[in-house]
Amino acid sequence: MFKNASTTEKGELTRNTILECALQLFREKGFNATTMRDVAARAGVALGAAYYYFASKDAIVMGFYERAQVDLAPVLDRSLANAKGLHDRVSAIIRAKLDYFAADRKLMGALSAHIDPHHPLSPFSEETRNIRDRDIGFFSQAVEGGKVHVPEDLKAHLPRVLWLYQMGLLLFWVYDSSPKQERTRKLFERSLAIVVSLIKLSSLPLMRPLRKHVTRLLEIAYGEETVDVLEPKQ
Length: 234
Known about the structure:
The chain is an all-alpha fold. The protein has helices spanning 5-29, 36-43, 47-53, 57-82, 86-100, 105-111, 129-144, 152-155, 158-174, 182-201, 208-221.
């Protein structure tokens, strides 16, 4: 039996209502203190209905991640279209994230405890791979149109390095207690200038040996290294 359009639309509306109410509760009570029963009551649905759309609070958070990516995609496309240099393009991506998640900074802080790649909500987990890969894709676009020559051996790794740089800034931001997270702003401005300068310097012939070591370290970190074959001693 096929669901008609009105049934599908109603189901999507209910799902979005539950998701929005859950986020409101996470902001008010905190992620850990909120229960699925709280979410169902706020959304005005039966507890069973809440579980029908979201099997757990973790599933709600995954829905939050997915919605954020859908919402941010056109924003990031416009930001990249309007920014020319690599510095401005990377800056535009990260600033868009900070603006979007500003209302949920405390929730992001609570979720930062799930950094273990084996936890499904970790930004490094297999469950979040598609979200992560699409996000890294925007940094690939930033590099491609950034008007900075990047050596090919580094170019393959650079989008992921920039994504990790972003994750480090976001982690600092969620715990930044300075007024309006002013310390994050200063750290962002100064560190990004250094990052872009290092990328520009990486193309110098003198940097080739160091670049080789750096790319090898990145391969090890991502589990992509090849096994070294030692020549037998004579």
